[in-house]
Specification:
heterodimer; A: alpha/beta; 10 helices; 14 strands; elongated; B: mainly alpha; 11 helices; 0% strand; ABC_transporter-like_CS (chain A); ABC_transporter-like_ATP-bd (chain A); nucleotide-binding (chain A); ATP hydrolysis activity (chain A)
């Protein structure tokens, strides 16, 4: 059982602040580090992995500093985002080399390859592997010494749905075994499927922390904006504004559409089709106008 | 202080790719030129010394040193695969020292061995010329490997800087500015060669004591500093 403690950590590159005064504690189980691209997730993971010194603050694993402390890697397994991995080796040679660097042997390497179900391709050169196979071999190299903390940077990038499911199962199992597993992602659904606990980072700041259901509700309960075109915009507007789930409607003449702000997401989504049907209005366009992840996150920061 | 796994990975990276072609091409060229010179002018101690001095020691040895020294670590840092070495409980100086030993061995094999063969072709080791330059190549291999390994650790443009040092500083600048020769791996190794050959077939601008001190100092300092740099190597993310 390991606990990773990030204490008032900031990191800047020149004038650019990549991570701004982040404090979090990552305990056993699976934790998702969620944030849009460029939010500072990789910088944060690099500091957790001891590959980057915090400008201020400390990162410790069970009280031990991770920066400039190579002995800490007896307890940490790392799956980096970057692809490069000694492509001229076979999968087996690569995992064996990783085992040897931990002072372990062929037995540990074989067990790790079995865990990720890569034995069937272990004697092929890594250069011939697909993205998903590479990811699994990286995973095997990180698991070879049975670490108590597992750090994964965007592990699902470029994986097909089946590979994604397999890796999720594996990570879930690791979490259930009492390991501390932290993975980063910019995709909400990925994090939601896998992590009970999530940490949200936006623009280098720690925006939210806790149970994913709570954060998910925060995200869905925010005011939603829609662009709606129909056979009779004015009649639709009049009917919708009567309901408390709608807080504002604007007739956009240039667009020939309605801009609707809904405060109760669930109620509005069932109200709209019903109102249209009852009034004999045909809906031509219904599109959310602020569904980008960035807007979701910026709402979270403001909340 | 030596890790066989790091050594294996380094050997395979150095000898497995295009780098091996460059490493093989230069010695082959030296042997062909030596054969041509011998055929055209016959065996002559002075000519042999000139060919080995300019082609082998001033050109081939530093170039092989650049390829092997920077190649032992530079590409791994560039593409990020060094993360698999750094995320292990292996001391950073051990990684550097192991890579240095591999780089020295590769430089020696691809520079000193062909130098000896070229010397034998040129004049059959008359006046100890072949052996003297071979010893010089062996000595220079150690210093070059250490300097270029450091360069590969600190700079993404290690090969360019290495080539500039090898060709501009050692070959060009050194022949124009006398003072620059004192700070030249080539001259230090020539001082050792001079001792081996005796006479005036092989000469150096630097005395043997100075050369020895500088060779040891540069090798030790470069290796120590590379180890320090690796301890705090920052792996930038892709963000």
């Amino acid at each position: 059982m390991s606990t990773l403690t990030i204490d008032h950590v900031s990191r800047w590159f020149g004038n650019v602040v990549a991570v701004n005064d982040v404090t979090m504690t990552i305990g056993p189980g699976v934790t998702g580090l969620l944030g849009p691209n460029g939010a500072g997730k990789s910088t944060l993971i690099n500091m957790m992995a001891g590959f980057l010194a915090p400008s201020t603050g400390t990162v410790t694993l069970d009280g031990q500093p991770v920066w400039r402390n190579e002995q800490i890697y007896r307890h940490i397994g790392i799956v980096p985002e970057r692809e490069a991995m000694y492509d001229f080796l076979t999968g087996r040679e690569f995992v064996l080399a990783n085992a040897e660097l931990h002072g372990l042997g062929a037995k540990a390497a074989q067990r790790a390859l079995a865990t990720v179900e890569m034995e069937y391709a272990q004697d092929r050169k890594i250069s011939t592997y697909s993205k998903g196979m590479r990811q699994r071999v990286k995973m095997a190299s990180a698991l070879v010494h049975d670490p108590s903390l597992l750090l994964l940077d965007e592990p699902f990038n470029g994986m097909d749905p089946r590979q994604r499911m397999q890796l999720m199962d594996l990570l879930r199992r690791m979490g259930d075994e009492g390991r501390t597993v932290l993975f980063s992602s910019h995709i909400l659904e990925e994090v939601e499927q896998l992590a009970r606990h999530i940490e949200v980072v936006v623009a280098g700041r720690h925006a939210a922390s806790g149970d994913f259901r709570k954060i998910r509700r925060l995200m869905t309960d925010r005011p939603h904006r829609y662009l709606v075109r129909s056979s009779d915009d004015r009649a639709l507007a009049a009917a919708l504004i009567a309901d408390p789930s709608t807080s504002g409607i604007e007739v956009d003449r240039a667009e020939g559409a309605l801009r609707i702000q809904a405060v109760d997401f669930g109620r509005f989504t069932t109200l709209l089709p019903r109102v249209a049907r009852d009034h004999g209005i045909r809906l031509l366009t219904v599109s959310p106008s602020d569904e980008s992840l960035e807007s979701v996150f910026s709402y979270l920061v403001a909340a | 202080m030596y890790d066989p796994t790091v050594a294996r990975l380094t050997y395979r990276a150095l000898l497995g790719r295009r780098r091996a072609l460059i490493l093989g091409a230069l010695p082959l060229l030296l042997l062909l030129i030596s054969l041509a010179v011998r055929t055209l002018t016959g065996a002559d101690d002075r000519t042999a010394s000139d060919v080995l001095g300019t082609l082998a020691l001033a050109t081939m040895v530093p170039l092989i040193g650049v390829v092997a020294g920077t190649g032992a670590i530079g590409p791994e840092i560039d593409d990020g695969s060094v993360v698999y070495l750094l995320s292990k409980p292996v001391r950073r100086p051990t990684i550097i020292l192991t890579k240095l030993i591999v780089a020295i061995a590769v430089t020696m094999v691809f520079s000193a061995v062909p130098t000896l063969l070229a010397g034998l072709i040129l004049n059959g080791n008359g006046g100890q010329v072949a052996v003297a330059y071979t010893v010089a190549a062996l000595v220079a291999s150690i210093a070059y490997a250490a300097v270029f390994l450091l360069l590969g650790t600190v700079s993404r443009h290690a090969v360019v800087f290495g080539l500039v040092y090898a060709l501009v500083w050692e070959a060009l600048f050194g022949s124009l500015v006398p003072g620059a020769r004192t700070l030249s791996v080539q001259q230090w190794s020539l001082a050792v060669a001079h001792r081996v050959a005796g006479g005036d077939l092989v000469t150096s601008d630097v005395g043997l004591p100075t050369a020895t001190v500088l060779l040891v100092a540069v090798t030790v300092l470069a290796t120590w500093y590379a180890g320090q740099k690796l301890r705090s190597l920052t792996l930038a993310g892709e963000e």
